[in-house]
Amino acid sequence: MYELTxxxxxxxxxxxxxxxYGYIRNEIREGRISSGEKLPSTRMLSRHxxxxxxxxxxxxxxxxSEGYIESRPYRGYYAAQIEGLYQIHPVRKxxxxxxKRNRAxxxxxxxxxxxxxxxxxxxxxxxxxxxxxxxxxxxLFRLGCPQGEAGLRSAISAYLHQARGVNCSPEQIxxxxxxDYLLMLLCAVLGTGHRVALENxxxxxxxxxFKNLSFDICTVDMDQKGMRVDxxxxxxxxxxxxxxxxxxxxxxxxxxxxxxELLQWSxxxxxxxxxxxxxxxxxxxxxxPIPALQGYDAEGRVIYIxxxxxxxxxxxxxxxxxxxxxxxxxxxxxxxxxxxxxSKVDQMILQKxxxxxxxxxxxxxxxxxxxxxxxILLAELKEMGTDFSISGENAGVHLLLHFGSGRTExxxxxxxxxxxxxxxxxxxxxxxxxxxxxxxxxxxxxxxxDEKKIKEAVHLLKKAWYGNA
Amino acid sequence: MYELTxxxxxxxxxxxxxxxYGYIRNEIREGRISSGEKLPSTRMLSRHxxxxxxxxxxxxxxxxSEGYIESRPYRGYYAAQIEGLYQIHPVRKxxxxxxKRNRAxxxxxxxxxxxxxxxxxxxxxxxxxxxxxxxxxxxLFRLGCPQGEAGLRSAISAYLHQARGVNCSPEQIxxxxxxDYLLMLLCAVLGTGHRVALENxxxxxxxxxFKNLSFDICTVDMDQKGMRVDxxxxxxxxxxxxxxxxxxxxxxxxxxxxxxELLQWSxxxxxxxxxxxxxxxxxxxxxxPIPALQGYDAEGRVIYIxxxxxxxxxxxxxxxxxxxxxxxxxxxxxxxxxxxxxSKVDQMILQKxxxxxxxxxxxxxxxxxxxxxxxILLAELKEMGTDFSISGENAGVHLLLHFGSGRTExxxxxxxxxxxxxxxxxxxxxxxxxxxxxxxxxxxxxxxxDEKKIKEAVHLLKKAWYGNA
Lengths: 469, 469
Hints:
2 copies of one chain form a homodimer.
Chain A: H1 16-29, H2 42-49, H3 53-66, E1 69-72, E2 76-79, E3 108-109, H4 122-132, H5 150-164, E4 173-176, H6 179-190, E5 195-200, H7 204-212, E6 216-223, E7 226-227, H8 229-233, E8 239-242, H9 256-268, E9 273-277, E10 302-307, E11 319-322, H10 325-335, H11 344-355, H12 358-384, E12 388-391, E13 398-403, H13 409-418, E14 421-422, E15 424-425, E16 441-445, H14 451-466
Parallel strand pairs in A: 3-14, 5-6, 5-8, 8-9, 9-10
Antiparallel strand pairs in A: 1-2, 4-11, 6-7, 10-11, 12-13, 13-16, 15-16
Helix pairs in contact in A: 1-3, 2-3, 4-11, 5-11, 6-7, 6-10, 12-14, 13-14
């Protein structure tokens, strides 16, 4: 039998039983107690170490439950057979995420993905959050409906009908933690073997997601009305991903005729679907918002995706997908078991936010704010120069400058950066090696820039691009 | 030219421009204005209708932007060519989610998936939530790190090291909205073409998820030590999904030797990984928690998944995955662009909850509570009968009753239900058509049942199963 010589530290931070357990475990690990060797009985060891028997029993139980020792009935405890035991050693640090690229310092950033967060309704959100978290709400922390809570889905359905012309019942809606997640979910719903057609240029995040999810991808050229359906028709695609209300990045609004052509394409063969990403249609500066394509879809061919990232805040992580009946059925059959990705508290806050009219008020406020920035930017740009035309300016929170005089995108970005202003080139939105015309096309997003900043930044751009200020 | 006869309703809820827009749109849709037909000029129409010219301009702009009319320079407005226009009609309601199964009414439910939510720390959670939502926190609503916020990942990493023996840096962690999502993400990280081996019986949710994500699946029988590695070795699997600390549903704790065998399997060929689901290891009633398999993994073969669903509440939707270095690289290469699925506010609340010691206190409280229920259930069961043995009772929040006297599972469940008690059979956790022994094995979860309920429910089970009370 193995003789244990443990020196226990009384009053140590580590309990006695754990000291005993740790000692014996290491002895077994390092082979000093070999497999099959008998260990002292708990009675013997407790006397030997002058500790209570229950302390030793506790240590042995732990060793037993981890499999270091075995108990043989009427005979006692034996070291288990442990071959090729790996030593625990700290795993090396992975430095990947630490390496931050040494970015140029910009004074102004015309990012097309900005959202003005100074206008976030903190007080309202905080109050609603407090109201949700009251004592008797155990229900709020129980697992909820996989599709999202019925109340929130009803609120979204009513909003979509009124504001976007979307026809759907709450049963057709799935709430999810962001568009990326909803595209992952949709992939799981539709299954493999699909080919998706994307506009070119397009929203890179969606492109990457489809690629990553092993979809076959093809790109379809655009004209001034959006995705060319005659080209789409010649592809093998059974899915078309479009942004008809405000194409990203071009800002194109798809006219009704093209929409109808697209819907006609979708019914020509079975199991074709259009994925409509209606990411920022809340912001439109001329007339009322253009109804969603989904509202014209009588045959159940449009899968509609919308988000609160642009209209409320990116970090609240709430988006929604409206599925036609046939996709609903697939969802219930294949993915109905997948739990919701949004916490019930967040869902309830958002539901109240919509139902109590805060969302509408917030949208009106943001629309006015962005429209103001939009108008100022346009006015400033007119002062800046004459060798460019502007497009995509009727909606959303960015516009495009098309330069005609043989100036390259790279040059415009570099000159702006040298003056502390970050601008974005259209070419980075092209996929599949396609590239835009050789003339520079520059995106300017203004959601993040207040009036003063816009004026200062355009002043710097003028200096950068035209050599005077 | 088309003659418009609109009867406008002054003072209507619908603005004048929208009445004009709607009228013309319908005329075009229904073919009463045919394609190519000229519309009156804005000046003429404004006079004709006795409204301001800007009102008509607004209506025309909306029609233009939606593509119903076209503007020809120096000539005016013409109805666009719109063939095969779909009529908008309300989409039929999808009744699927409405149909609620007519469930039997149970007085007591021994669900193995329960969590006691009466003990949820509402006050603390509410206070932390209030502290997070202060005015100057615009940063909280900006898009965060795709992996989850660095602060939360640090807190999780420290907790895992201390409580679970997991060795990892915050850079190896991805925070996600639940285990279902993390498995979806992992699938996207690893790519296609894998075969995953699951224990049988197993956690059905994981099985469904792998199946849904188009993994090849094989099942590996278990013995009393967990997944049989000798059987695993004969499969083509390159992934093994296991729950070594407390197998679900059997409650098996994998002893150290089996763990080592499993780790040895993982290094025998390149690109083999073990997915360790450590779903409820926080609750252990004998000795200290058993360290995670990940802690023994020196070769970077274990992908570790944990959740706050069991330890805090299912509806907060926060889980985490610890990736070894090689998987981290794949993650950054293939999925680094996928946005986080957890809101920053929720992440910050959880981070504070852990850092300020609330999580540890909450776990201690829950451990004591569940241990108490566990002890009472065991004591009551001993009173109930003698024709069964108990297993899986050292950890987690459920245990198993193995009946020996030829009683069938179906019979036991039915008798219990007839007395208002819901119990669960082991057979529903088997996949691939495998089935357990013909003798009944019943799962009893006790997280949701307080002392009084446990006593009453076992009393009813005694009546149901033994005919006396």
